[in-house]
Amino acid sequence: MIDGHGDDIYRYDADMVRLNFSSNIYQQADHSALKAYLADNLHLLNNYPEPQPRSLEKLIALELGISPEAVMVTNGATEAIYLIAQMLHHSASIIPQPTFSEYADACRINNHIISYENTDDLTSLPSDRVYWICNPNNPTGNVMTKGIIEYIVRRSPRYTFVVDQSYEGYTLEPLIDPREVQDCHNLLVLHSFSKRFSVPGLRLGYVTGSPSTIQILRSLQHPWAVSALAIEAGKFLLKRTEPVIPDLASYLEETERLRTNLRQIDGIRVFETKTNFMLCEIEQSTSTDLKFYLIHEHGILVRDCQNFMGLSNHFFRVSTQRPEENDVLVDAIRQYFRQLSEKEA
Q: Which of 36, 93, 229, 323 could join 112 in a cystine, given CB atoms 3.0 to 4.6 angstroms apart?
C-alpha cells in the first residue's frame, strides 16, 4: 500500500477541514436511514459474520441478473485487486499511467513483471499478460468506451483484462454490463459499494467474472474478510430505490461549470473529464504549496497528485461539490495566484 491516498482528512484536526475536494466520493449523501438501521442491528457484533458473504452475493446477483457464482463480495474493491494479483502471480502486467496506484503495488507483492506502457518493453513481455484498466480512470476522469474494451477483450483471449469500474455510478458513459462478464473467461470487473453509495468507511466492494474464475478467487480470500455490519449495510443499501446522487446529469453539468471556471484562472490547466473529478496542473507553483495554502488559509482540502506515477508536483485533483462550495474553491485559488503575483512584484 502506498502512502498518500486521496481524502487524507485523517491527517488534520476535525475542525480544520471546512470543504473536502480531495475525495472523489459524493459528499452530500443522506445516510440517516442507514445509520439508524445499523444502530438497531448492533447485536451482530456478538457473533462472527459469514466466512464468505454469500447472502449479500445472492442479492447482488439478483439485482444484476447474473449467477451468484459470478459475483464475489470483497473488503472494498481494493481487496479484489490484491486477490486477483495473487491469483495471477508472476504474470506480466500492463498498467497504463497515471492510474490508481494499488494495481502496481499488488502486482509487485505478487512478483509480476510490470510494464507501464510508456517504454518499448511491451515487445519483450510474455504473450500471456494482464491488463489493468481503471474506467473511469483515477485521477484523470477519462473513460474508455465500452465498445473498445469489448473489442480488445474478445480479440485477445490469451490476455486477462481487469476493468475497475469503481466509479461507474459517476459517469453517463456506457460501461461493461456484468451480464456480459460471466461468459467471458478473460475479463474481471471490479465494483465498489464505497463509491456507489458513498460509504467508503464500510470497506465493501465486489468483483464479477466467469464462475470458474470467481471460484479460484474465493479459494484465496481469507475467512471473515467482510464484517457483519458491512454485510448487513450492503443488504440494506441494495434495497434503496432512490439513487444516492439525485440527479447525475446535473451533477456532471456542475462539474463542467467548475472546470470552466478553473480554466479561466491564468496558470491553471484543467484536463477534460467524463466524471465528477478532474485533474489540474499548476504552472507557477507546486501542488504541495497550493494544498498547504488552501488548507491553512481557507480550510479547503485538495488531492496532491505528485505520488501518481507519471505526474509531477504540479498536479492536483478536485471533485465537484455544491455550486456555492465550488465557487469558494475557485475564489481561493484565485487568491493564491494573486498572492504569488504580489510576492514576485
A: 93
User: Which residues is 96 bridged to in the sheet?
Assistant: none
The pLDDT score that the predictor gives to residue 226 is 97
Helix and strand numbers, DSSP H then E, in the chain = 11, 13
Categorize the per-residue pLDDT at 131 as very low, low, confident or very high, splitting at 50, 70 and 90: very high
The candidate with the shortest Cα–Cα distance to 26, out of 254, 244, 304, 341, is: 244
Contact 132, 160 (CB under 8 A): no
Q: How far apart are CA 314 and CA 284, in angstroms?
A: 9
| Torsion sign, CA atoms 177, 173, 130, 81 | negative
> Which grid cell sits at 82?
490484491
| The C-alpha cell that represents 255 in the structure block | 462539474
How far apart, in whole angstroms, are the C-alpha atoms of residue 239 and residue 241?
6
HSE-CB at 144 with a 13 A cutoff on CA atoms is 18
Residue 328's region, left for phi above 0, alpha for psi from -120 to 50, else beta, is: alpha
Contact status, residue 182 vs residue 209, Cβ threshold 8 Å? yes
Provide the grid cell at 123.
515487445
Helix (H, G, I), strand (E, B) or coil at 181: coil
Q: Which residue has the cell 458513498?
A: 198
Do the Cβ atoms of 316 and 282 come closer than 8 Å? Answer: yes
User: Is the preceding omega at residue 98 within 30 degrees of 0, hence cis?
Assistant: yes
For the question of whether the overall pTM of this predicted structure is more than 0.85, the answer is yes
